[in-house]
Specification:
With about 150 residues, the protein is mostly helical. About 70% of the residues lie in helices and about 5% in strands.
C-alpha cells in the first residue's frame, strides 16, 4: 500500500503514525482557523440565495468585520513569531505592524461607510473593494500563520 497523508481543515491524520512535516502542520493550522471565518459567509450566502437577494452579498458589512478579525489575528501571529524568534530585524517588524494596523483602519473605514448608508444606496465598487480586502486578509493571515509555526514550532 502507498503512503497516505490527509491534511484536512480540522483533522490531521497519517495512516502510519509518523508526524506531519512543519509545512503540513502550518497549512493545517491556518486552514482550520480560516474555515471558522468562512462559515458565517457561507451561511449568509445561503440565506441570501434563498431570499433572492444575492446581488447584495458583496455589500454586506460582514466582509469588513471579518477582514478586521483576520488582520487582528495576523497581528497576533506576528507578535508570537517575534516572541519565539531568536533574532528579529526591527525595521521589518515595525513595517509589518504598521501595515497590519493600516489594514484594520481601512477595513473599519469601509465598515463605517457601509453601516452609515442604506442598503439600496451602497456602491457595488465598495462591495468589490471590501471583498478584495477580505481575501487579502486571508492571504496575509495564512502566510503569517505559516511563519509563526515555522519560527515557533507550534
Amino acid at each position: 500500500m502507498g503512503r497516505f497523508r490527509w491534511v484536512s481543515i480540522t483533522v490531521i491524520c497519517t495512516n502510519d503514525g509518523d508526524t506531519l512535516t512543519l509545512e503540513e502542520r502550518s497549512i493545517a493550522f491556518a486552514l482550520g482557523e480560516i474555515a471558522f471565518v468562512l462559515l458565517p459567509l457561507l451561511v449568509i450566502f445561503g440565506v441570501q440565495l434563498y431570499m433572492g437577494k444575492l446581488h447584495h452579498f458583496l455589500c454586506e458589512p460582514e466582509w469588513s468585520i471579518l477582514s478586521c478579525v483576520m488582520f487582528g489575528q495576523s497581528i497576533v501571529k506576528v507578535s508570537h513569531a517575534i516572541a519565539e524568534a531568536d533574532k528579529v530585524e526591527k525595521f521589518g517588524v515595525g513595517l509589518w505592524f504598521a501595515l497590519l494596523i493600516l489594514a484594520v483602519v481601512v477595513s473599519v473605514g469601509v465598515l463605517i461607510y457601509i453601516l452609515a448608508t442604506k442598503e439600496e444606496d451602497r456602491s457595488t465598487y465598495v462591495g468589490i473593494f471590501q471583498f478584495i480586502v477580505f481575501w487579502v486578509s486571508l492571504l496575509v493571515f495564512y502566510n503569517l500563520s505559516r511563519l509563526q509555526v515555522e519560527v515557533g514550532g507550534e
